[in-house]
Amino acid sequence: MKLNVRAFAVALSIWWGVGIFLGTWWVIAMSGATGEPTFLARLYIGYEISPLGSVIGLVWGVVDALIAGAIFAWLYNTIAERFFAAKEPQAQV
After folding, report:
1. Distance (Å, whole) CA 4 – CA 13
2. pTM attached to this predicted model
């Protein structure tokens, strides 16, 4: 089975970006907006627990997961193609 690289990358980027966005708003709702440094702030420049930071995290998350999803799907297809090609029985003529 092969993955559609474009579809996988877009789906992953939407999930990751929206997840960061909603996760940020969850933290804002539970403990309020803070300027405390987070692990994501070390990865995504400009991200913080704030309304603006949630949008910045959404954009960074979409871009990051789009690239990571494309690489993962391409690598999966490459490995699966080599692995399953070796496992297929040869036709006897």
Report:
1. 14
2. 0.81
**Nearest by Cα to 25 from 47, 53, 45, 44:** 53
The per-residue pLDDT for 26 is 95
Cα–Cα distance for residue pair 26/3, rounded to 1 Å: 33
Instruction: Kindly report the number of other CB atoms within 10 A of residue 5's CB atom.
Output: 17
Q: What is the pLDDT of residues 32-85, one digit of tens each?
A: 877 777 888 899 999 999 999 999 999 999 999 999 999 999 999 999 988 877
DSSP 29-68: HHH--B----HHHHHSTT--BSHHHHHHHHHHHHHHHHHH
Evaluate whether 47 touches 57 at the Cβ level (below 8 Å): yes
